[in-house]
Write a structure and sequence with these properties.
Number of strands: 0
Number of helices: 8
Structural class: mainly alpha
Order of helices and strands: HHHHHHHH
Largest sheet: none
Helix content: over 70%
Distance between the termini: 84 Å
Radius of gyration: 23 Å
């Protein structure tokens, strides 16, 4: 009798949640944080896949960066993606307080975050460069702004490499571009969850689909943190690399300084 009463109460809560437009979660939760730490190996795998892709481009004559410049470009993007992953974990843990588990919410955020951050990265790269140029024209003595105007070049002239230029551009990439792009993307995700009814929110529906799937925790973890990101992170690496690499020809490298 007690078991029947419990089942009836659970059914009643489920029906009430459905009528209220909420998504009802009642499945065992899966761990995210420890799995996410292990998942950082995916960034390395995606980076290796991108290295192979770039090596092939170099062999075909489409890539002209030296190894040091290429490694610097990759490290900036790795910092951006690592930051984005941490923010998604934190948001997933927060959303899980309202139902479901953090892993399902992470999987729901991921496709939207990766598309939005790619778009915002291109916009912010242009905005930070143009903003630095405007400030430099107003304050010519602020020479520390010069590296911000030549994103992807690591010295006063093409081919030079200065650690100071590299770290300033790392700051530009991770904080001014990466953090802002990912906070904006996840802000839109949260906004959609608050504005749209749960039954019409794509993020909430994907989270529910992951959570109520017939997959075990190990299977969900493998798909959400390993298989899908291995493919999409490698694609994003290639796209963002094209958006963030040095665009000015070597002959025009000193244009922003005059």
């Amino acid at each position: 009798a007690a078991q029947l009463a419990t089942q009836l109460a659970c059914t009643h809560r489920r029906a009430t949640a459905r009528r209220a437009g909420a998504i009802y979660f009642a499945m065992p939760t899966c761990e995210l944080v420890s799995s996410f730490i292990a998942r950082q190996g995916i960034l390395l795998a995606a980076g290796c896949a991108f290295l192979i892709f770039t090596w092939a481009r170099k062999q075909l004559g489409y890539e002209n960066r030296d190894l040091r410049t290429f490694a610097a470009d990759c490290s900036k993007q790795a910092g951006q993606q690592a930051l984005g992953g941490v923010l998604m974990v934190l948001l997933g843990m927060h959303l899980a307080k309202g139902g479901g588990d953090a892993l399902a919410w992470y999987g729901a955020q991921y496709p939207f975050e990766i598309v939005l951050t790619t778009v915002f990265t291109g916009m912010l790269r242009k905005a930070t460069e143009s903003g630095a140029r405007r400030l430099l024209r107003r304050r010519p003595d602020w020479r520390w702004l010069v590296p911000f105007t030549l994103f992807g070049q690591y010295g006063p002239s093409a081919g030079d490499f200065s650690c100071r230029w590299y770290w300033l551009q790392m700051l530009q990439a991770v904080v001014l571009i990466g953090a802002v792009a990912r906070l904006a993307a996840l802000g839109l995700v949260v906004l959609s969850l608050n504005v749209l009814p749960a039954v019409a929110s794509p993020v909430a529906l994907i989270a529910e689909a992951w959570y109520h799937s017939a997959l075990s925790c190990n299977q969900r973890t493998a798909l959400i943190l390993y298989v899908i990101p291995l493919v999409l992170d490698a694609i994003q690496f290639a796209i963002i690399d094209a958006l963030q690499r040095l665009r000015a020809p070597p002959s025009a490298a000193t244009t922003p300084l005059t």
